[in-house]
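debug: dumping io for the single-chain case to check the tokenizer round-trip. Nothing else runs in this session.
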Amino acid sequence: MAAEAEYESVLCVKTDVSVYRIPPRASNRSVRAADWKLDTPDWTGRLRVTARGKVAFIKLEDKISGQLFAQAPVEQYPGVAVETVSDSSRYFILRIQDDNGRSAFIGIGFGDRGDAFDFNVALQDHFKWVKQDYEFSKQAQAPDSGPKLDLGFKEGQTITLNIGQSKKKDKPRPQSSGGFGLLPPPPSGKIAPPPSATSTNHSTEPLPGSGDAGRLLDLDSNNSDPQVQPTAPNPNADLWGEFTSDSLSSEAKQESSSTNWVEF
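debug: decoded output
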């Protein structure tokens, strides 16, 4: 089966980078960029960071033609292929390799601190992705290696299921803001008005079915004169005599006087 083709992706591009020759290390002490001839770089050009599979490549190319000057394959970061200096964040040490496998150490530097930051972050993000991909492939190969959850019932363990509709809860009655409840509406029936009183003896007789009006008139008479006792109604009196006019009352008086004279 033929091996799958690996595509090369571009992680970072910086158009201005300087290359320096660095002296060999005398000991394992940290390297200082101040020991390089920073004013006279040995080469200037463009830097590109690419990735092919899990390996990143730092390529130094000509600005105009794009011809490759040197490249440094990076299999781990931080590591031997890319190192930082102790006195600046804009300079790094690269281990470059040719096609024959020979390697050498050179120094590179960026004129802007932001370019150096982007270069560092591009390498960190790539190898963070490599680490995550390795963890995912490891879990896919051995899915049963992790701890298992025991979801079975223990001995004597029971569960209770409530099936059906839940009981309806009584809704609380709304309470009024005051201490008294609402009064019922008045009845729709009409109350007959009381008859007007025209008699001078202050005696009134309630009509049938007008008990409420009589009580109201009694209350008014009691309030006006508490010592006066109500007179008993005369059964022979005409209930509608109070509504006759004055002329009719005078004619009745004349007839009564003439009658008395004849009987005498």
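debug: round-trip ok. The helical segments are 113-141, 211-224, 246-263.
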